[in-house]
Amino acid sequence: MSTVLVTGSPEAVEPVVAAVKAAGAEAVGLTADIDLVEALQKLDPGSVGCYVQLPVGITPSGDTAVSRVHSFLEQGLLARFRLVDAVLPALSEDATVVLVGGHTQVEQQAPDDQGARRALLSVLAHAVRADRAPVATHVQVLD
């Protein structure tokens, strides 16, 4: 039986894992309070039938809007690429990947472009499809 793997912040992962289990599927939740990349690399090859990647909590740092946005991207959106890369070997032949947005703007005064944030997740989705080719992998980006 393949597993539904859910990663993200603890407050986001727990209800999703509970819902998956309530629907009768096997689910594993890995939260951002551990080294996610290391944990993902330990998964058995082909053992994950569905990977749900939820956002993690971010605390951007920096004295300028540019440095805070950089921190936001590095800790949030760009870190998600490393997580997917680590989980790729564990995906089964018919796996589905669900990338869920949700990172919010750094602060009210910082520039925010929700379309750009979604576009980065779409780039990640295309990269997953490319890495998995010729296997057709269903990848969905949700807001």
Work out the helix count: 4
Outline type: globular
Low-confidence blocks of residues: none
Give the percentage of residues in beta strands: 15-25%
Count the E strands.
5
Strand order of the largest sheet: 2-1-3-4-5
Mind describing the biggest β-sheet? 5 strands, parallel
Q: Residue share in helices?
A: 40-55%
Radius of gyration using CA atoms only: 15 Å
H/E series, N to C? EHEHEHEHE
Structural class computed from helices and strand pairing: alpha/beta
For the record, give the distance between the C-alpha atoms at the N and C termini, rounded to a whole number.
Answer: 29 Å
Please give the structural blueprint.
Elements: E1 3-8, H1 10-22, E2 27-31, H2 36-41, E3 48-53, H3 65-87, E4 91-100, H4 114-132, E5 138-142
Parallel strand pairs: 1-2, 1-3, 3-4, 4-5
Characteristic terms for this protein:
143 residues, alpha/beta, 5 strands
